[in-house]
Structures are given as C-alpha cells and as structure tokens.
Amino acid sequence: MNQEIELFNKLVTSLLRDDKEQPVVKPIPPEQLFQTLDLDLEDDAISEAQFEEILTTLVSKTPKTGNIKFFNQLFGGRQPKAILGDLLAVILNNSMYTYKVAGPQVGVEKAVLRKVAQMIGYPETADGTFPTGGSLSNFMALVMARDRVGREVKEEGVRQELIAYTSEDSHYSNFKNASFAGIGRNNVRTIRTDDHGRMHAPELRAAILEDLKNGKTPCFINATAGTTVMGAFDPIHELADVAEEFGLWLHVDGAYCGAVIFSDKYKHYVEGLERSDSFSFNAHKMLGTPLTCSVVLVKDREHLVHSFSNEADYLYQTADDEFNLGKTSLQCGRRNEALKLWSLWKSVGTSGLAKIVDKLFELAEVARKYVADHPDYTLYTYRDSLSICFNYKGIDPRVLCTNLYTEGELMVGYGSFREDEFVRLVAVNAINTKEDILNFFTTLENFVDAHDLVESELVNTKG
Ligand SMILES: *Cc1c(COP(=O)(O)O)cnc(C)c1O
Predict the structure, then answer these.
(1) Structurally, how many domains does the chain consist of?
(2) Atom number in ligand 1 closest to CA 291
(3) With contact defined as beta carbons under 8 Å apart, do 225 and 234 qualify?
(4) Within 10 Å of residue 283's Cβ, how many Cβ atoms?
(5) How far is the CA of 101 from the centre of ligand 1 (A)?
(6) In a domain, 79, yes or no
(7) Ligand 1 pocket, residue 415 CB under 6 Å
C-alpha cells in the first residue's frame, strides 16, 4: 500500500492547492467527456506513470465541492476530523452487520445513536441505524409505519388502501418511497403549505378525515425540518396533535436541517420532536461530514426489528442481536458510515457541533441581510432559513447560474417556490467566512457587469 498512500498524498496535496487557486472547475461538456479524458477500459495494464497521470487529470477536472465557492447543493466544505474518520473506515473495511466483523465499530455506531436519541428526548426504548441517505431514512420510516398498521402486512403484503401525508414542499423521496413500499404514489397526499413553506396542520387533518370517510387507511405523516428549497420547518407540535388524534406514525425528515438539535440556540425549530415516532438527519449536509452520513432514529426499537430483521444462520453466529446491527438495517453488507460522524463529534464535542450549526445560521443571515439591503436584489427567503433565495436585476436565474458554472466562477443552483424561480444560495458550508459570502455577491455582480447580462436578452434562452 505504501506506493498508493504516497500517490494519494500527492493527489490530495495538489487538490487542496487547486482548491485555493482555481476553486471552480470549468465543466467538460458531457458530449466531449470521453474524448477529453482517458476513461475507457482496456485489456492491458498501464504503467504506474500513466496511471498517475490519468488520476491527476481526473481529479483536477472533477467539480470541487469542498471549497469556499461551492453553494450548489445542501452539502459542502470539509470537516478534517470527519474525513479522517471516513478514511479510516475505508482502510478498516468492516461491514456493520455483525459484532464479529465490526467489533468496536458497532460501539461507535451505537454511541452516536444513543446520544442523538437522548438529545431529542426519545426514551430508553429508542434505537436507529445509518441508512445510505435521507431518502432511504424516509423509506425505513415509511416501512415501519406501514408494518405497524397490521402485523400481517409484512407477511401478506399491503391489502388496505394505505395513505401517507407530506407537504407540497417536502422531499421527492416521499413519492418514490410510497411506490417502493407498495403504497403507491397516488396514495401520497400533498398537503398545502403556508407562505413560509410550512405544512398547514388543519389541512392535514381535513385530508385525513376525508380519507377515513372514503374507507382508506391513513398511516404515515412526514414532517420536514428544513424543506429542500426554502429551508422551512414544519410545526411539529401541531402535526403531532393530528398524528396522536388518529394514531398515525409521525416521521420528521430533518435531512437538511435536523442537525439544529445540536444547537441550544436553534433547536427550538424542532420543538416537539420528542413526540415523533422517528427522526432522521444527514450529517453530510449541515455538519459537513463526507457523503453519505444519514442517521435515522426510531422511538421504539421494536418497529425497527419487526420490519427489518431476518434470520440468517450463515451470518449471525455470535453475540447478542443488539450488537448485530444487520438485524436492524436495510442492507446486508453495510459500510461504516458512523465513524466519520463519531470522529468529528468525539474531537470537537457537542459544543463544537453547536458551533458549526450556529455559524451556518450566521452566514445565512449575512447573505439574507445583504440581499435585503441591496435594491438590485429581490429576496424570497424568510428569516431562520439556510437557503437564501433571490434574484438579481431581474435576470433569469437559470441563465445566471448556468453561466456562472460554465465560466468557472461559482457553483450555485436555482429553485422555485410557488410561481417564483430564483437563485438559491445555501449556507451549509461551515468553512466559509462572512467575507466569502460577501465575495459571492461581488463575484456574481462583477460577472453580470462583465457579461452585460440584462433581463431582455436572457428571457428567450430560458430552457
Ligand atoms: C437532501 C434531502 C433528502 C434526501 O437525502 P439524501 O441523502 O440525498 O437521500 C430528504 N429530505 C430532505 C428534506 C432533504 O433536503
């Protein structure tokens, strides 16, 4: 391995240098990709020198998500302690299904789950797992809700017309998951949101009553803590009242902003979380661990076991089932995703995680204030959101974002809420400083000036 570790160091060193000198890579048009890079696979081996050259080029042409100019998605930046943990997980290469194979790494995962459960006010019966992302966390929650409807559902399949409820601004995985779970996309009710993008509880209640009247079986409510576009927080207490009234499973999808639980200052956004049946968050979003690091917690472990355990003599040969994590996971072989979060958390403490969360809200406030104070901008975001949505001088956001990307200036995306479409700057990159946020706007404004982007010229290019 020595040779590879040396090469790895060399590649990483130049990547980190490039991150400063050339933070945004000019994209290769997809139709030229295979002519530009030597990606095709051949019968013969290549020399070490050729191998190094190809890897060097490949790394340098890959979009950079770890630096100060990446605002494109709900992840970004680098947490060095989390990266160290993840690199160790690769070298150790355990599979998390049994204690025999993962040993103390099982303890690493359990320690994270236990601590999160405690922090959100779940009882001793709580447990959880690390699925491959927020979408699959939502899926596991839905499957547990489905299987709770009747103990026979798991064996016989879904016979009732089950209904799930989620807001119109919730993540698209809710619809995919309903089809995977045998519930069907048409049996997901999209509940209207208010002007701030929060689910409207009275409307939810009305929808449930209507379904009951029509002989359907409501089973699942998905609340969102940080909607994907606007970063809105659904009112958990109000939704929990409805869930309790009808005996439905309440899941809180905190993939984007669930990590507010780590901050005393911001955890009130998820007030009432202890009343939910399950909760998930992505540490690879706000906390900045490498992809993917998603945690799902369930109030009562029994549901996790009921829905996901299966006997397998060839696998489970030692130890208590509580330490054989394969009994409560979606996968069989499973990567160690817990170590990166544990490494970060262990080294900086809960107070260090709180600092990350607080800093993101500060950065968002810098951006929100800048946009609000400058008349050339239109602001679409409400306070307390990490997504700063805006338009500049009426320029089509699609054109602006695409040009910034193809010219190698900034990585930022666009989104929409109701009839408005806008640029969405996401403040989830904790390595950014306030200056980096202000530089974002300077870069954007200079770019618009230099390219003479004006509204009238751009409207037609909207694709
Ligand atoms: C990102 C996101 C998801 C999906 O998480 P993945 O890890 O990308 O699967 C689900 N819900 C919300 C609210 C999100 O923002």
Answers:
(1) 1
(2) 7
(3) yes
(4) 31
(5) 30
(6) no
(7) no
